[in-house]
Amino acid sequence: MHLLENIKEAFRSIHSNLLRTVLTALIVSIGIMSLVGILTAIDAIKYSLNETFASLGANSFEIKAKGYSNRMRRGGVQEKVYPAITYLQAVQYKRAIGDQAQVGVSAFISGATEIKANGEKTNPNMNVVAGDENYLQIQNYNLAAGRAFSPAELTSGANVAIVGTEVKDKLFPNQSPVDKYVYLLGRRFLVVGQLEKSGSTMGGGGADRLVLIPLETGNQMPRQRALTYDIKTATTSPDNLTYLTGEATGIMRAVRHDALGQEESFEVEGSDSLANTLDGLSGNMRKYGSIVGLVTLLGASIALMNIMLVSVTERTREIGIRKALGATAKQIRQQFLIEAIVICLLGGLLGVLLGVAMGNGVMLIVGGSGFIVPWLWMSGGLLICVTVGLASGYYPASKAAALDPIESLRYE
Q: Is the pLDDT confidence value at 271 over 70?
């Protein structure tokens, strides 16, 4: 019997024992479903959390000028202070990054500011920040009412503002602040939007005590000293963060004209600790999930071996006839191995489909979105099926190949 004939014979045997084949394939499919489902669920949850962490700034970093005048090195030597990042340098950096990431440029205009409107005034603890078109999104600030700055307002430096909830509650109780005017730092600003309540952040009030104005407007405000610009760069993919950090460092060195061999005149402060923690957790979950899936699959392989042994016993007379007709021990062994592998692959295909559905179902339950197709785990699952078929079928196949043809023909 040739290999092709053995394959055909395996399918004929499977068809003639359809119920047993279905039950065996289901056992294998449950094991593969557990393995692929757990791994798919972990990847799906990680994907969903990556999106959430990205919105929280986990996949971002800030660039600031290096050195502080009040910091001392060992021995009382003052640390070197580098010039602040200028507006031109921030714009050059933003243009150089291009579409690789989202860049937000902002400047702190004033703290402990008093905002006035309608004969009322806030406590003198409001913060005024000037930001560009990406500021709200990159800081994960959402609007409760109104709109963001228009391109014309950002370009011309219009006197418009977006206010936090504490400003709204104090100056415009029980009404919307949108299209109302407020006074701060000697100017009148039209309120075009209101931020959602964020709660206190380390005692600073977060977005609740914030008044946001266009970046160009902040550049035009009268001031006693030059503004210091903060640059925040964010990416939606945590896997790309390391490369992007290196790319940003090179661009900023060129923008700041840092000489070759000289230390950077700026600091890159990453906020990727959440992403790193997530990678560690997902790695442990994947490891322990694989162990659970493999244990389930081990049970399936034992069940398959048992069923194949029963099949050998039931077909003892058939094996004797084949050997009497000239089939070799190798061909008999090959026939039963192929049958075991085919059963495993049929169960594996069903298990892979069920596992992918189960993994994505878990993501939907935890509130995620999207659909993950884990090609790696699907391919790995089918490869494991072939391995399980070989491992579970080898002993029954060897036992069948070792049967004496005369004794097999006498078997009742």
A: no
